Every structure is written in C-alpha cells, then in structure tokens.
Amino acid sequence: MAECRRTFLKRVGYAALGAGCGLPLAGAAGRALEQRRGAATAPAKQWGLVIDLQKCQSEAVRRVCTEACHREHNVPQVPDPDEEVKWIWSEDYANVFPDQTHAYTAAASKVMPVLVLCNHCAHPACVKVCPTAATWKRSQDGVVMMDMHRCIGCRYCIAACPYGARSFNWRDPRPFIETIRPEYPTRTKGVVEKCNFCVERLRRGGEPACVEAARAVPGGEGSLVFGDLSDPDSDVSRLLRRKHSICRRPSLGSGPSVFYTM
Amino acid sequence: MNDKPTILVGLAVVLLGLTFPVWHSLAPGRSVEPPDLELPAGRLRCVEETPYMRAHHVDLLDQWRESVVRDGNETYVSEAFGESHRMSLTGTCMACHTNRRTFCDRCHAYVNVAAELNCWECHVDPSNP
Amino acid sequence: MFESAFRGGVRYWMLLGFWTVVILAGLAVYGRQWTDGLTVTGMSRDVTWGLYIAQFTFLVGVAASAVMVIIPFYLHNEKAFGRMVVLGESLAVSAVAMCMLFVFVDLGQPRRVLNVLLYPCPQSIMFWDIVVLGGYLLLNLVIGGTTLDAERNGAPPPRWLKPLVYLSIPWAISIHTVTAFLYSGLAARPFWMTPLLAPRFLASAFASGPSLLIILALVLRKFTRFDPGKEAIAKLATIVTYAMLFNLFFLLAELFTAVYSGVPDHRHPLAYLFFGLGGIRTMVPWTWTSVLLGVGSVALLLLPAVRRHENLLAAVCAAVIAAVWIEKGLGTVVGGFVPSPLGNVARYAPTGPEITVTLGVYAVGFFVLSVLCKIAVGVKAEAATAGLDSGQRMDGGMP
C-alpha cells in the first residue's frame, strides 16, 4: 500500500506541476501568436530623420538637441562616463562613419562632431534579440519602442545594437535628474533606454524635441528634418531625393531611418 | 502509541495558528476600521464606478499601458460614464488623487499589498517629484 | 534513495557547511546588488556583459559535456562508462543550475524574469536558450533519478527511459549550440559573428567538461568507496585530448582569418586580447596564460604516459579547465565588446562584489553536486552490497 500511495502522490505532483506550468505557458503561446499576426505587416508609416552634418557643426545646435531631449524625457546626468545614459549626443565622424574614413581623410574631418541617436532601423537587431518583446518596432509608425515595464534588464539589445544607441540604468537614475518633469516618467534601475522619436509628442501632432529645439537656434533651421519616409511628398523624402545622403554602417543590412547629408 | 500526545499538541498549535487572525483581531476591544482614504474634493466620480475601480484598477492601468505604449492610443472612453480621459497615471489619476500617501498607500497597507507599490519608481508623483 | 543525502560523516557535513558559508556571503553581496543595481559590478556602458555571463557561457559547455559519456555508454555499449554516467548527469544538473543562477544575477530587473516565459519571443535566441536549458535540467533530473532509483531496487530502468536518454544526446548538443547562436548571429559584433563559434564552443566544452569529470571521479575515489574505474577515466582522457586538439585547431583557424585578412573589425578585438589596444592591457596576461595552458596541456595529453599517471592527469585537466575558462568566458565575452560600436576601447575588471556573487553561485552548484554525488555513491554502495549478497553483477563493470 505504501508503494501505491507514493505513486499516487508522485502522479498528483507531476500533474500539478504540469498544470501549473502548462496553463500560463499555453496562455503565453496564445499571446505570442496574436503578437506575431500583428507584427507581420510592414509599418504604415516610417518616421525618419535627416541630419545636416554641416549645420550640426554648430556646438549650439548640438547642445540644445541633447539638452531638450534629456530634459523632456528625464534622462539622468550620470557623472561616471562608464554609466552614462544618453539618448542623443555627439561623436567624432571617424567613430560614427568608420567605413567612410581612410588614411587620407582630413584630420579635421575625422574629429568633426556628428549627432548620433537610435536609428529606428527597418530591420532592428535589438528587436530580434529581445526575449520579452520589451522592445519592438511599432507597426503604426515604425518607431523602435521601449516598454519599460517589461524590460528585464538582460542587456541583450545593447549587445545587438550596431550603433551603441542604447543605455542601461546601472543605478537608480533619479538622484541624477536635475529637475524631474512630471509630464514624463523617469526610468528605474535595471532597465535599458534610448531615443523614442518623442512618440508622446508625435501622437499629439507635434515633432521631436530635438528637431524643435534645433530650429530655434540661429543657423539651426534645417539642421534636423523629421518626417515620414514612406510618404514621397514629405520633407525628408524630398530632401533625400535632392541631396546626397549617407547612413551609418549600411553593409550590416539594418536599414536605419536616420540619414546624414553634407 | 506514544505519538498521540505529540500529534494532538501539534494539531492544536496548527489550528490556533490558522485561526490567529480570527481570534486575535476579533477579540473584544479590537475593532477593524476601514482605511481612512482622502478622497478628492469636488470631483464626484472616477474614471469608472468605484466598486469596479477598487477591484480592477490594476487591470485598467495595464490596459492603459498597453494602449499608450504599444498601440499609440492615449484616449480612454469610460464604459460606465462615456467620458473621455487621457490614459496617464500621473496626468489623469493623480490629477484628482493628488496625494498617494493618503489614498493609494493607505488602502494598500490595509489590504497588505504595500510592497507592490513600485509605480512611483518611474512614474512621477506630482506631490513629491 | 535521498536518505543518503541526509546521512553522512563529519567530512560530508563540513563540506556542505563550507559551501553554505560561501553561498551566504554571495547572498549578502547580492542583496546589495538588488538594492543598488548592477553598478556594484565592473560592467559599463560599453562592456555590458562580464563575469556573470562569462560563467554562464563556460558552464553551459560543462553541462553539455555529459553527452560525452552518454554517447559511448548508451549508443556504443561501452560498459566502462557505467559508473561515470551518473557522475556526468550530476555534473550536468549542477552546471545547468549554476547557468540559470548566473543569468538571474546578471539581470537588471530579476523580479521580472518570468516575462521571458509570459511573453515568448521565438525570434529571440535567448528565449530558446532558456527553454532548452530548462528542458535539459528536467531531462537530466528524470534520467539520473530514474536510473539511480532502478539501480537501488536492483531492477533494470523502465523502458520509457531509453527514448529520453536518446533525446538527451541532441538536446545536450543543442544547449551549447543555442548558446553559441546567442553570440554568432549579431552583426554588430564581428568578433562573435563567426560560423565557427558553435563548433568552438562544443570542442572546448568537450575538453573542459570531461576534464572536470575526471577530477571529480578522482576526488570521489579518494574520499569515498565510489570508483568509476581506470578504464573510464582513461577513455575520458582520450576524449579530452581530441576535443582540445579540435579546439586549438578552430582557434588557429579563427586567428588565421583575422590576422591574414587584416580586416580591422576582425583584427582589433584579437589585438586587444593578445597585445592590448589603446593602452588598455588588462586582458593580455590572461590571454597568454590561456594559450600556454591550452597548448601545454594538449602537448602533455598526447603522451600516453601522462594520461595513465592519474595525478599528473588531474593537473593537466585542471590546466585544460583553466585555459578554456579564460578563453571562452572572459576572452570571448569581453573581447566581443571591444572596440565598442563607436570605436571605444573600454577597460573591464570584475569588482569584489561581482566576484563574491560569482563564488556564491559556484558554491550553490558545488553544494548541489556534493549532494547528488552523495546520493549516487550511496545508491551504488547499496546496489553493490545487494549484488554481492545475491551474487548478481550490477551494471557498472566492476564485479
């Protein structure tokens, strides 16, 4: 009889384990199928940005872009450069376009400051690798978005991003935010963040904070042009047809939505 | 069997432990007060009806989050009252419930789920930014 | 069967006590990481994976290497491996447990870890890694537990076990292949994006895992009455030799492509590891140590005299483990982040808290391994006694 009781208890235990794990997993599978159906189509719209390299030489233009973005989104100012969090900032031309730099590139060109940010790629590697879909490409506007509630902080997306566009919160960011803007949340420690093309402004018909701020600077008009790449009549589409443009690391096939003109 | 007294004592201890909330709280002289929640002045009603909000405010917030973050839609139409609201914890909920400590925290402490209130790690508490 | 875990001599309890102390130290420091965030580690904006993921990568290999005893024993009827199989499975269980713990302690928001199962993303290799690791853990627990149980009862294992054993073979290969695919599909990291990464991982796993098994077997033989047998150890040594040869060959192939082609994207991470880059030379001594240990151990392993001399073999195995641990763990993981996508050469060094948490996780693994080995030794002892009494020969090769 002891053997029968033991077997019975074992069977009940396995059944409970199976149901306990199986039911939520079945639910999750259902949700995954729904998500896949939604993500199959190409985005209805693709927001894009064209940056004028010449106009962005201006330190004022670049500074207000970074300040406006970081102020708008409560991005912390972490003093330790190893733990920096930044959404849009300047880097040297040679580091941004290594495939365009050669032994005889003028020294001045190599250190020319270039604004860099998330490229909201057509084929984002970060989206491919995220194990929880905490980052995904939105089907309505092509923005590569972050869901701060779902991010588990595994940093796989940072490993996958070819542009170094993402930052991780190594510590609680709040002590490093000078003035918290209540209209936008902060992040907490342990999640990844990056530029979101100001979707909170876009959904009210506005434009990204950096674009707006750059325009207000003398000489900054036209330094950052924002619009719908899939609309042939938008400012960005017409600009890209008219001027020669480059993008970062095209050979990787990521399909960035941020372009640079001379 | 000389295990019988041990078993009976053990059973008694377990029963006492299981029924602790009953005989400890309902002992004479100890009444259970509902939490003292500071309700917003003037405003007559919430996004949905109060019993629904009490039971489902987390589901509602989850729904708002998915809608704003994933679908890009921030307008919510109340099922009970038909009014439109902007889906925002800080912008809408806290516009009326201005002080989380006298509202949210009090009820959560009463039902003993205070540990789960990490909304304000990210979302800004206007009364205490 | 599990009673042997609770009945032991002073040395057994002291061993468990030692692991417990280390676990508690790790837990205490992890508490600080829980409240302060991952800033307590040495990772940075450019090097976002470090010691924790390095251990994870190394240990997945160790877990997969159990297949190197399963294949000969179950597919080719190599009776010599009879007593080694249970050790291999115990090592696999403890390694997978450590793998999952290392991923957990590396997470920025560990409370949300279940999101990986609640929101499955089949296009993410990390999702599959967690699925196959979980499955492998279950497989090994079931196979090991059922086999031991059957032995204890003096009966052959149930028939449904064989298909599970056969399943565990490709599954073991898959866990380490999937882990390699985590790295080798990233266009952003040319150091990792090589088709050779999965074969390299498997080769180094099949060198380091059986090396660990050899050392474990020798330790058990010294301190208990459990003896997997000279033949099993000798065969394992042969496996280590071949695997290490393949590993070195693959590494040479990688070096050739990078160095001969001279393509900067491929050359720079290797330069960083071997000679230092941008004035940062922290990885250089580690890299050369790994090369010396790796080449030296293979040279020695090629001599049959060394493989037969068990103390020398143990030392050489330790060298193999150290070489693979450095190359696969720190070398592969940190090397992939330098230079960063924006050309930055970062310095990485694990901090004290990071090392303490790592040691704590290892202690959990060794605790589990100690308990599992105790159970295995207990069951084998019982079975041997029963066998002697009834004159039957028990599976294991040793009469």
Q: What can you see in these coordinates?
A:
The complex is a heterotrimer of chains A (262), B (129) and C (399). With 262 residues, chain A is of the alpha+beta class. Chain A has nine helices and ten strands. A four-stranded mixed β-sheet of chain A has the order 8-1-10-9. In chain A, strands 2-3 form a two-stranded antiparallel sheet. In chain A, a hairpin with a 6-residue loop joins strand 4 (135-137) and strand 5. The radius of gyration of chain A is 23 Å and the shape is elongated. In chain A, 45% of the residues are buried. Chain B has five helices and two strands; from the N terminus they run αααββαα. In chain B, strand 1 (75-77) and strand 2 (84-86) form a beta hairpin. The longest helix of chain B has 22 residues, at 50-71. Chain B is elongated and about 70 Å long. By secondary structure, chain C is mainly alpha-helical. Classes of the chains: A alpha+beta (262), B mainly alpha (129), C mainly alpha (399). Chains in contact: A-B, A-C.
Can you give me a brief rundown of this structure?
Chain A is of the alpha+beta class and 262 residues long. Chain A has nine helices and ten strands.
Low-confidence stretches of chain C: 388-399
Q: SSE order of chain A, as H and E?
A: HEHEHHEHEEHEEHHEHEE
Largest sheet: number of strands, sense, barrel closure of chain A:
4 strands, mixed
N-to-C SSE string of chain C, H for helix and E for strand: HHHHHHHHHHHHHHH
Query: Strand pairing plus helix content of chain C: what structural class?
Result: mainly alpha
Mean pLDDT over all positions of chain C: 92
Strand content of chain A: 5-15%
Oligomer designation: heterotrimer
How large is the count of helical segments of chain A?
Answer: 9
